[in-house]
Structure formats: C-alpha cells, structure tokens
TrEMBL record:
It is found in: Membrane. It comes from the Eukaryota. One of its GO terms (cellular component) is membrane. PANTHER family: IONOTROPIC GLUTAMATE RECEPTOR. The chain crosses the membrane at residues 584-604, 639-658, 830-851. This is Glutamate receptor.
Amino acid sequence: MGATRLVILFWALSAVDVALAGARPSEVAVGALFTYDSSIGRAAQLAIELAVDDVNAEGTVLSGTKLNMVTQDSKCSGFLGTIEAFQLMEKNVVAVIGPQSSGIGHVISHVVNELHVPLLSFAATDPTLSASEYPYFLRTTISDYFQMNAVASIVDYYQWKRVTAIFVDDDYGRGGVLALGDALAAKRAKISYKAAIPPNSNLDVINDVLFRANMMESRVMVVHANPDTGMRIFSVANKLQMMTSGYVWIVTDWLAAVLGSSASRDIKDMSDIQGLIVLRQHTPESDAKNKFISKWNSLARSRNINSGLNSYGFYAYDTVWTVARAIDQFLNSGQQINFSTDPTLYDSNGSTMHLSTLKLFDGGEQMLRQLLLTNFTGVTGPVQYDSDRNLVRPAYDILNIGGSGSRFIGYWSNHSGLSVAAPEILYQKQPNTSTSAQQLYNVVWPGGSTTTPRGWVFPNNGQPLRVGVPIKSSFKELVSGKGPDNVRGYCIDIFNAAAKLLPYPVTYQFVTIGDGTRNPIYIDIIRRVAANSLDAAVGDFAIVRNGTQLAEYTQPYIESGLVIVAPVKKATRSAWAFLKPFTLEMWCVTGALFILVGIVVWLLEHRINEEFRGPPRRQITTIFWFSFSTMFYSHRQNIVSALGRFVLIIWLFVVLIITSSYTASLTSILTVQQLETGITGLNSLISSSLPIGYQAGKFTKRYLTQNLNIPMSRLVPLNTAQEYADALNRGPKHGGVAAIVDEKPYIDIFLSNYCNFRIVGQQFTREGWGFAFQRDSPLAEDMSTAILQLSESGQLERIHDEWFSRPSCASDDDSEVGETRLGLRSFSGLFLICALICLFALVVFFTRIYWQYKQYSNFEAAGEPSAPDADSVRRQQRLSSLGSFKELIQFVDKKEEEVRRKMKRRPSDKDNQAAGSSYATSVDSA
C-alpha cells in the first residue's frame, strides 16, 4: 500500500514538471525596425498595430499568450538603424520585423545570424539578401528578382533591345540593376548604360548623371531608386526635356508606394511623371483585404494621418501574422523561449557598448523552421515559401501614369508573363509565357503620344553618324573617293539608297580610311567600329566570323565567295590536232579492240555466212573492213548468227560512246583555253607548292592559312588589278604567282579588263557583303529591312547594272578551262565489258564446235568398211587422223550446212552397205 502511494506521488510530481515545462509564456516580444517618417513606414506602422491587435484578439492563434511588439525607428540611416537593431536584441525578442531598407538589412542580417533571431523584412527587396550567407533573413514581400523579370518582359513586349538603368548607388540599387541585367539578357536585350546616382545627391549631381545618360542612344529609362531621390530624378528629367515624346520611362514599385501613400497629390509632381509605366506589387481582391483597408483608413483618420495605404502596408500586416503563427506552432511543439549568453560576445576593457547584454535565442533554428512552413491566406493572398525562400505566386500590377492618377494596363506574373487577366485566374490554368500570349492595354507615352516609341536615337545628341569607308588604289567601281565629301561607288550607292528608306531621318558623314595606294586592313576598320571610334563601316566588307564577333552586320546586299583565277592560253593550231582527244594508250587499245571485234565476228559468222567466206585475202580484208566500218555504222555484211548479233550490239554501243567522247574532246581542244600552271581547282591549289596571290587587307589571308593550312611562305599580298595581272603573267618561275584567290566580285571586275585569265574550279566559300554597325545597334536591323526593300523593288539590281557593265573581253562561252584529253582510264570499264562479251561468245562458239566435231568424227569412223580382224586398228587410225590440229582447222573452215548434210547422209550409206553384204552372202550360199 505504501509502495502504491509512492508511485502515485511520483506520477503526480512528473505531471507537474511536464505542465511547468510546457507552460506557455504570458507574453512574447517581437521587434519591429523601420523608418517611421517615410511613405512605407507610415503605412507599415498602422498596419503592424492593427495586426498585433487582431492577433491578440484572435482566440485560435497564441491563445493565452500576448504578442508584444517592440518598435524602433531606423530614421533612414544605416548607422542609426544598426544601433536600433542592437537595442532590439537587448530586449530578448524572438523575431524582428523589418527593416525596410536593403542596406540596413545587409548589416542586421549578420547580427541576427550570430544571435539566431529570425529577421523578416516586408520592404527589403534586394535580391542579394537571399544569399546563403543570410540564413536567418526571410523576405515577406516580393524580391526584386521577380520585379526585374517583369521589367524585362515589358522591354521584350515592345521589342526594345537597349535600356538605360538609373539607380541609387547603394545595395538596393546595385542589387536590383544586377538582377535587371540578367533578366534582360534572357530576353536578348541589355543595359547599354548605367546611370548611378550617389545616395542623398542634390539636384546638381542628379542633373549631371541624367545629362550623361541623355547623351546615350537608348531612350528606354528604367528607374530603380528610393522615393526621395526618385522624385527629384523626374523633376530634373523634366527640365532636361527628357519627359517628352520618344522617351520611355519604366519605374519600379517604389513610385507606386509613393503615389499610394500620398492622400493629396502635388499637381506639380504629377506633371513631372506623365506617361510613365509603373509596377506595383499585386494583391488580389478579397473580403479580408477590404476589411483591413477599412480598419486602416479609420485608424488613420482618428490620428489625423494624411498618408495613404500602399502595398507595403499589406505585407507588413501579413508579416505580423506570419510571426504570430510561427510562434504559436513553436510553443505548441513544446519548445520554450529561452536565451543564453553568447560566449563570442564580451565587453572589451573600458567599452560602454555592453555587448554581453545581447543574448542568443536558443530556439532560433526551430523558430526559423516554423516560419518556413508558413501556409495561410492573408490580405496579400497566399503566404507560403518555395524552396528558395521566396513567396509563391509573385505578381505585379502594371500602371500607366496619366492626368492626376494612374491607369491599369495589365499584370505580370512568373506563371504566365504579361496579361490583362488577373494572375489568380491564370494560376488555375496551364502556364503560357509564349510571345504570342503576352498582352497589355494601350499606353499613353510621355508627351501624350499613343505610338510606341522606337526606344533609341543616335548617340552624341544628334551628331551625324561616323561612317568609315575604305579607300584603295584599285576596284574603284566598288568604293572610291578623295575625301569625306567625294565618296562614290557601288557600295556607297547601296548605302545611300537604303538610308533613304529608313522610317526616320539619318544624318551621317563618311570618314575615308586609307591613302589610296595600299589597301587598308579591313578587320582594323571593324575594330574601330567596335571601339566606338566609328559608328558604322560601309564598303566591300565580307560578312565573316571574326568580323561578326566585333560588330553587327546588315543583310548581305551582294553574294560573294572565294574563287581561284589562273592564267590560260589558247590551244595552238596543229595539223595533228585531230589526234589530241585521245592519249597514245587510248588510241592503241581502241585500235586493238576494233581488230579483236572484227576477228570475233568473223569467227562467229565464217561457217554460216557466205559474206565472211572466200579466199584468205578476201577474208582478211573483210575482217578489217567490217570492224572499222562499224565506226560509221556503214558495214555492208549482214550478221546471221545469234552470238554475232549479240557481240555486234555491244560493240556498236561502245563505238557510240567512243565517237561521242572523241567529238566532244576535239571540240573542247580546238575552242577552250588551256591552263598554264596545272591548277584546276582547290585541291590542286592546296597540294601544289606554287605561290598564291591574295588581296592585301582582306580576310583571304587568314582563311588560306587557318582554314586551308597553306604556309605563309606561299602567299603573296597584292593591292591592285594591275599587280594581279603582272604577277600572273610572270608566273612562279619569274617571281610571280601561279594563281590568285579572291572574292568573286573583285575577280569579275578583274576579268572584265584582263582576258588571258580565267576562273578555275568552283567557288569554295559562301558569304556576302554587308554594312557593319556597333554590336546590338538597332540601325543594323533597320538597314537590313531597307536592303530587302531594295531587292524586292529591283533597285538593288539596277544599281548593280549601273556599275558593273558586261565584260569587254570575256569569252562568250562559259566552258571550263583545263585538260581535255581522254585517257584509257576513262573507258577501262567499257572496254572490259566489251572484251568479256567477246570472250563469252568465243567460249560458247568453240564449245559448240567441239561438240559438233566429236559427233562428226564418230559418223566418219562409223562409215568406213573394215575386215573383222582389222576393224579396230583402222578406226583408231582414222580417229587419230581426224583429231589432228590440221583436221580441226579444216573442220572449222567447213560450212555449217555441209557438215550437217554429211552427218545426215552417213547413216543411210551404212544401211545400204549392210543390205549389200547380206545379199552377197546369200548368193554364195546358193
């Protein structure tokens, strides 16, 4: 019984200990750090107060525990904000709401990391705060990473390629612009100029920064600043005439916060921001949101606060609820709110900072885990975090400032991009971020224009374009000139005609490059364009790989490619020219084959065809006459045997091929020019060791050495068409070149004046000529469109015909030059087939003769009378006699008809002899 009482007492004491251990505190402290006197701070202060009252009044969250909010004013100062943060930590807060400044957030994040106190900011949007070095920082608003993607989508929607970023040069500004650059790069656009404004700059400094930005070509301005500096930016921009037609201003959500907080807007300020596109954090409509707005307005009126509510007030309200729910879950899991001394913090000798008063929150890691598991619907919509600690479903409203307020033109969300439908509706559907699905309402741009601005102008405040033009001593049909005001040529006419078709006026000034005696280095001119020493390069510029890496080229206005030109000579007239189509071996084999076919046909026809019989002399004549007359299809002899006809058909086909080839080759030899150097195309050029000429300054040298691996020692630079002709005429043996490699348009001009040279082989590269502009220059695209218009209208061809007339000395025929003699190799297959057919016919013929000969011999032996004793001896002697070679030849020479007649007669003779013998025997018996 006593033991039972002890057990009961033990369990009672244990229950008391558990109850004491799990007892919820009556009050929990949470810190709040923001700037009271600011557009964001005024909205957030009332929102936080309302949220604390609602949490404490709510029975289901923190039941029995009061949420105590300890606020500190950072006063828009990084230094003071840091001091205020330390003061909050001394009050043993379990979490800190704020700060609203990204710069202060960077500093305080190191403090909370050390003390394990979660930091929840409803206004610090710098994307770099999400780095892994700040594990206790949690953003309860939308990161500027998403906002800059929204800006990039707008830029891409209107097909702008370059923007100027205007920002305050602090952590908030730099982090946002960094995210903007990445977002634009994904849309194939970029920040062309960064206009950084130092913090707390006066109007003069802002004026200098904007003036330099206005000198750039981009007219798409993206402003990412704080409210104080931002409003001064527009005031200065208005004075610099930068708020007029042709400009585009895209402003991040700070301006929407300013406009939302201004209950009575200053008319002067509104006149400075007409036509702007402004982003605002999207909060879906709901009863909870409307109820909160009503409460906030009532509290503001009761305190005579003139400031209005902005989107950051909504996020501040939800942040308090996020902390309250996390604390509730923390306590419900049995955790205790305890603080301990941080051994790394101590007071140095004589210090008055009292760092030892800062305590380490023992449950900080568990509290952070509960915060990341937050999942509820607040006044801003779903409050939930993804794997990157960002709020789910980030979205923005897109506004257009006009009159005394703003006009809604669309939404952006990371689910479906730009749209005019609310994001909460689109989140119920499949994502569709294709370009065709993007949509916005019409915008009224600065200056009151409804036409989408082009987004760029010529830089240097309207100064004419600096257009570089290469001046050479030759090929003046393409480009020539003695000064900037006297530039002409085919390429110049194309450029002038295309410039007239641009939808806007363009002023330009030619800058001649080169002294007219030696060719300038073309890639150096392109480098000057890339280095901004020139705005464009116009002339005979080939669009090649190393050039496109430096500059932007237009659509090609003429096709080009490398070809080989070599010296040629007319074939010499000779009395024996008719023998040149075939080589000696070809003639010999062809003649032998004629005789062979004649003999084969004679053998096949001799025994059955009277036309192939007669005296030996006549038969030899018939063989030669028949074989050579088939060349002209004039043979008189009829072929009666099947084998003979088969051989003749094959032979006539061979004769047809031989005569056709001979005729074509003889025509070519008598009319086509012949090569002097033996270079017939690219392969023979590479394999030879002969010197090669090229045009100095062009890309040909690099192509020959790098792509074709031709040694530099073989290359000879040439400048003019006259140097081309001289080098080719001298040839390799006299210090000249064997061939010249250059682009087709140059060679066409060269050959129109020099007639003893020709293009050999095929064109072995494919490129074109275009005009070069600076990288990503919008003018390159517009000029390409103009060149296509010139081509479609036929003007491009007319300009070509004006400068390139019909060559004065070019040959009328387009026959290729080179060796035209035909060798045995070209007909070896044909001859082999013919020989095999003849061999086959002979094998069949002699097999048949042999069989016939055997039959004939047997019949001859059977027809001889013999005594009983001498029969076998005589028969063997007869067979031996018939089997001799001479007898075989005689048998072959016999007519087929005669052999058959004798073979048919022998059996009848034998029967008669047998009948006579029987009759004689009977007479003797009688």
